[in-house]
């Protein structure tokens, strides 16, 4: 069998490929060539890259370079160290307390060993020692020293039956004996002269791959035999470079020219991978198998192939096919309805059926006929051509009635179709996206954008008798409604809610059995098993509505579903097809269930933590200064597993939850206090969360020392306040005392004043009484004097003169005036002084008159006191006014009372 025949066996156009994830040099930001791959016990991937060591923590790639900038040719994860080999350099990487990797060179241990131009291409651990090879020798590192075991061009290392085997280029195989010496492995005699590229253990047997063939050890006769003639014909052309052994009798061969081939020894099936079906490059430099995933280090990029995935893809890389809306699987071919037309896919490739161009929404197989509902017509699909049913308008859906009549939902109504032609059902003029039969002559029709209708037809299905629009429960219009028949009951999914039809009330009601599935649209029902899609997240749900439930996250389909037009087709109770944007997927439910039972979920971890200025140690509880807490950044890792997302929950003064994006988690402007950052794989069971504790220190003005200062200031303020209040209290008390004393004094003064006023009033009265009595007395005496003057002729002249003198002396008595003056001054203390200061020319007689006027005495009352007539008083008053220079309108008495 020649190479071209072999290629035809497995390079079929219908080959479905497992998921292939491409990591380009742009995405991982390093060089294109990747020479070796390793994985640690956590699931972190390490790649020997042209620019350094690439580390993939499940979320992000990070490059670590050597100081020399040398190419790293080999990598091997052993315990907590990552050993790498490069040009004249060997050492290991180890995480420091801050979570970053630091390189420790072991070059100093090459004592008395001439490295010359050595590059170390392979590393392996055996009996807790590290063995590494170059094209010039084999070396051993025991943790303390490095020793060179042998010279030679060594190309591969492998442990087989508790012995370390090494391939020595064209010189066959050797193994390490108990004395750490290399001994020739005799069965490899037949391999002498062949360039050995790789050796592996497969199903307990030693496999040797040379550049142009692959051999297996036959222990019965201690010789190497050709493993597969057909496979060797492919290898001879492609040039073998690496071998990977997989479970289930599968072997993967990576080549330098034609990608890789997976060979199943049991059924002799081949599956080929190269640039035409998903790989970035055909040159395989390194390979690693880890938990069902094949990691490929390529000459240009890194690829990951999920080898035994329950999901297989057909992807049209040419872009000709476009988005697939429906498909029908036949034994040797598949018909695909896409936005560019109807295609036939078979071993000859993908071909557009003549006449089936244009957007096709649906394919329906009825008996042996396949009907396509397209954007411009409805037609029957044959092997290479189509037969047009109706090209007057486009159509959405084809349905078979209980009586085997065919109805087609079009853009302008419903057609009844048979081999003899078609008939448009009257009274229906709206577009019908989907139909279902409630009974033999009652159909439900869903408008593509809004509205659901219940239509009663005649028995021959040619005329509509009743057309009733079905209202929603909440009064909202039905937007893009979906109608189904579930357990012989009409169900409606509208506005992200499940409803069902109640025939008794002729209305929709809540579908209680599906109430928990609101926001889940039904894709397909098959044998009481249901596939739903979450219209918010695009995750798929497989359930029997009882105890069985299986979830398929959208990333498993590479987010390739046709949004709004998701479709799933059941081939059997286990095999389903899913339409995609650029092809379709094949899903094996049984394999998916088995996979779910053996899920590997790794634990998330923090690979780094920093603020605006500092990288913090992860070995102890970080304390972040408040001034640097404006932006806190975490590097999050989730070693490669069946969970691809990390959820987080930050609790403390603030509570924040979410999903880590691109391996970076940032928090801004956290308040001071202690925080717990909880990380957990999305979809994992409880108990897998990891908690990291850190604290944001208070700002300087809230630090312990400042709090002590604040306390001191507070106590000082309290003391000052106490002192101030006490002072105020004392002042208040003093003011009260002063006020009291003042009030007391004022009260005493007032009482004294009142007493004095009373005394003055009393003296004034006494003065007035005395004055009036004196006036009366003088008046009487003057009357007596007058009477005596009348009778002076009758009396002795001498005796009369004596009496008259005595009367005059009594009237003008100085003693009496002095008593008056004294009493007057007690009442009007400064009257005479003020009056004389104002009018210094006043005589004593003037002062006397003024005093009488001050007492508000009349002229008649004054006259006796002064011993003159009333006329004399008036004349004296006149003269006094002139001395005082008073206006003639000014009352003299009022003037004296008011001003003196």
Automatic annotation (TrEMBL):
Q: Which residues cross the membrane?
A: 700-724
Q: Which GO terms describe its biological process?
A: regulation of DNA-templated transcription
Keywords from the named record? Membrane, Transmembrane, Transmembrane helix
Under InterPro entries, the record lists:
Sig_transdc_resp-reg_C-effctor (IPR016032), Tscrpt_reg_LuxR_C (IPR000792), WD40/YVTN_repeat-like_dom_sf (IPR015943), WH-like_DNA-bd_sf (IPR036388)
SUPFAM superfamilies per UniProt = C-terminal effector domain of the bipartite response regulators
Q: What region holds the HTH luxR-type domain?
A: 839-896
Tell me the GO molecular function terms.
Answer: DNA binding
**Name recorded for this polypeptide:** Sensor/regulator hybrid
Record the organism: Zunongwangia atlantica 22II14-10F7
Q: What is the lineage of its organism?
A: Bacteria, Pseudomonadati, Bacteroidota, Flavobacteriia, Flavobacteriales
């Amino acid at each position: 069998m020649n190479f071209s025949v072999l290629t035809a066996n497995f390079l079929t156009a219908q080959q479905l490929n497992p998921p292939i994830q491409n990591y380009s040099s742009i995405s991982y930001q390093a060089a294109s060539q990747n020479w070796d791959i390793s994985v640690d016990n956590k699931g972190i991937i390490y790649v020997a890259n042209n620019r350094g060591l690439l580390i993939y923590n499940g979320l992000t790639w990070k490059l670590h370079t050597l100081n020399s900038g040398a190419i790293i040719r080999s990598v091997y994860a052993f315990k907590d160290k990552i050993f790498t080999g490069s040009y004249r350099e060997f050492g290991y990487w180890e995480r420091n307390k801050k979570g970053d990797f630091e390189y420790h060179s072991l070059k100093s241990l090459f004592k008395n060993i001439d490295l010359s131009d050595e590059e170390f291409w392979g590393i392996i651990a055996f009996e807790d020692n590290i063995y590494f090879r170059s094209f010039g020798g084999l070396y051993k590192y025991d943790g303390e020293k490095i020793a060179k075991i042998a010279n030679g061009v060594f190309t591969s290392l492998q442990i087989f039956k508790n012995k370390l085997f090494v391939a020595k280029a064209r010189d066959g195989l050797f193994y390490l004996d108990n004395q750490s010496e290399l001994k020739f492995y005799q069965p490899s005699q037949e391999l002498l002269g062949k360039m050995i590229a790789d050796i592996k253990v497969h199903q307990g047997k030693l496999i040797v791959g040379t550049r142009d063939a692959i051999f297996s050890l036959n222990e019965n006769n201690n010789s190497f035999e050709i493993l597969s003639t057909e496979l060797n014909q492919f290898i001879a052309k492609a040039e073998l470079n690496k071998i990977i052994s997989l479970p289930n009798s599968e072997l993967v061969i990576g080549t330098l020219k034609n990608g890789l081939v997976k060979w199943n020894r049991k059924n002799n099936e081949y599956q080929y991978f190269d640039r035409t079906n998903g790989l970035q490059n055909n040159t395989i430099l390194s390979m690693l198998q880890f938990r069902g995933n094949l990691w490929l280090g390529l000459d240009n990029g890194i690829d990951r192939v999920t080898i035994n995935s329950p999901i297989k893809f057909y992807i049209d890389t040419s872009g000709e096919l476009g988005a697939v809306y429906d498909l029908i699987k036949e034994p040797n071919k598949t018909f695909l309805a896409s936005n560019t037309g109807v295609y036939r896919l078979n071993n000859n490739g993908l071909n557009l059926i003549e006449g089936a161009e244009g957007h096709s929404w649906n394919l329906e197989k009825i008996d042996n006929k396949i009907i396509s509902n397209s954007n411009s017509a409805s037609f029957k699909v044959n092997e290479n051509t189509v037969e047009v049913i109706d090209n007057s308008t486009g159509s959405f859906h084809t349905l078979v009635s209980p009586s085997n009549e065919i109805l087609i939902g079009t853009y302008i109504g419903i057609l009844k179709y048979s081999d003899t032609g078609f008939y448009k059902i009257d009274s229906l003029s709206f577009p019908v996206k989907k139909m279902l039969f409630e009974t033999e002559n009652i159909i439900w029709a869903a408008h593509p954008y809004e509205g659901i209708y219940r239509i009663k037809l005649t028995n021959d299905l040619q005329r509509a008798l009743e057309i009733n629009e079905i209202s929603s429960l909440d009064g909202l219009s039905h937007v893009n409604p979906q109608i189904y028949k579930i357990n012989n009951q009409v169900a409606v999914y509208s506005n992200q809610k499940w409803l069902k039809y109640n025939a008794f009330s002729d209305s929709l009601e809540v579908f209680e059995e599906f109430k928990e599935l609101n926001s889940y649209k039904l894709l397909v029902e098959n044998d009481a098993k249901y596939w739903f899609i979450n219209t918010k997240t695009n995750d798929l749900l497989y359930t029997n509505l009882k105890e069985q439930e299986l979830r398929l996250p959208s990333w498993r389909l590479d987010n390739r579903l046709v949004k709004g037009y998701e479709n799933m087709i059941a081939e059997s109770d286990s095999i389903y097809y899913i339409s995609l944007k650029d092809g379709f997927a094949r899903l094996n439910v049984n394999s998916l269930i088995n996979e779910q039972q053996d899920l590997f979920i790794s634990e998330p971890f923090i690979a780094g933590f920093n603020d605006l200025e500092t990288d913090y140690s992860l070995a102890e509880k970080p304390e972040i200064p408040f001034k640097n807490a404006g932006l806190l950044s975490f590097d999050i890792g989730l070693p490669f597993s069946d969970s691809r997302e990390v959820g987080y929950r930050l609790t403390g003064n603030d509570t924040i939850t979410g999903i880590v994006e691109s391996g970076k988690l940032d928090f801004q402007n956290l308040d001071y206090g202690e925080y717990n950052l909880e990380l957990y794989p999305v979809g994992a069971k409880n108990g897998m969360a990891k908690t990291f504790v850190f604290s944001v220190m208070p700002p300087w003005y809230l630090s312990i020392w400042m709090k002590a200062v604040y306390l001191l200031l507070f106590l000082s303020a309290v003391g000052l306040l106490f002192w101030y209040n006490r002072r105020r209290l004392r002042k208040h008390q003093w003011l009260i005392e002063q006020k009291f004393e003042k009030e007391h004094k004022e009260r005493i003064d007032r009482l004294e004043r009142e007493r004095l006023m009373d005394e003055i009033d009393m003296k004034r009265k006494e003065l007035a009484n005395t004055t009036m009595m004196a006036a009366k007395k003088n008046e009487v005496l003057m009357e007596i004097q007058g009477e005596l003057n009348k009778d002076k002729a009758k009396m002795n002249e001498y005796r009369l003169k004596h009496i008259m003198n005595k009367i005059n002396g009594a009237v003008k008595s100085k003693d009496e005036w002095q008593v008056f003056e004294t009493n007057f001054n007690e009442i009007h203390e400064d009257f005479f002084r003020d009056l004389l200061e104002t009018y210094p020319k006043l005589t004593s007689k003037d002062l006397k008159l003024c005093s009488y006027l001050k007492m508000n005495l009349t002229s008649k009352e004054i006259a006796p006191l002064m011993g003159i007539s009333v006329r004399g008083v008036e004349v004296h008053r006149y003269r006094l006014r002139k001395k005082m220079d008073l206006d003639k309108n000014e009352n003299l008495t009022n003037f004296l009372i008011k001003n003196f």
